[in-house]
Amino acid sequence: ITATYGAENVWSNYIGVWHMDEASGTLVDSTANSNDATVVTSGMTYGATGQIGDGVDFPGTTNREFTAGNIDATIVTNGEYSVHGWIKADQTSAAARPVDMQNSNAGGVRWYVNANTLNWRHGAGGSTVDVNTAFTDTASLHMMHQVWDGSDMFAYLDGAIVNSGGTTATTYGD
């Protein structure tokens, strides 16, 4: 039996996968979709200690650190999705967005920390669903997971569900 490994085979059910193990520049998507992440801010530290291997330390000086291909439109178009990642907050009192795959027109996913709250957001068609939980830990890496089943959002932190449902708002692009 011969197995063929490559982006088109290993990550065939994924919209994007970023290992963040680059030494500099663009964060390369490991899928065949070519949703490479473009750096928006300067000052990122490549080769930072991650949960598994290297990672990237984002300075948190802007609202958006990088953008990733056409992820926002793809997520909304597909209707159901799951997003998973690791974060370690340097601070929790001021606004910072470790994950922002959302634009003001098509929707998408945003994870952000603000006012000692960790927030998960799903956006589509100009409205959003937000769920959150109290969050003040700046010492540890945390696994975040977001599931959208087409009508409800479920937010997980370190493998445990912390909130679901959410509230709908009509503001966008904030």
Describe what is shown at a glance.
The protein has about 170 residues and is mainly β. It has helices at about 5-10, 70-80, and strands spanning about 35-40, 45-50, 55, 65-70, 80-85, 95-105, 105-115, 115-125, 125-135, 140-150, 155, 160-165, 165-170. The strands form 4 sheets. Strands 6-7-8-9-13 form a 5-stranded antiparallel beta sheet.
Detailed description of the structure:
This protein has 174 residues and is mostly beta strands. It has helices at 7-10, 71-78; strands at 37-39, 45-49, 54-57, 66-68, 81-87, 96-103, 107-114, 117-124, 127-134, 142-148, 153-157, 160-165, 167-169. It has a 5-stranded antiparallel beta sheet with strand order 6-7-8-9-13. A 4-stranded antiparallel beta sheet has the order 5-10-11-12, with no helix packed on it. It has a two-stranded antiparallel sheet with strand order 1-4. The longest helix is centred in the middle third of the chain and has 8 residues, at 71-78. The termini are far apart. The relative contact order is 0.13.
Biggest β-sheet, characterized? 5 strands, antiparallel
State the helix count. Answer: 2
Structural classification:
mainly beta
Q: What is the 3D form?
A: globular
Distance between the termini: 52 Å
H/E element order? HEEEEHEEEEEEEEE
Low-confidence stretches: 168-174
Helix fraction by DSSP (H/I, runs of at least 4):
under 10%
Strand order of the largest sheet: 6-7-8-9-13
- Mean pLDDT across all residues, rounded? 75
Total count of strands:
13
The Cα radius of gyration reads 16 Å
Beta-strand share of residues: 35-45%
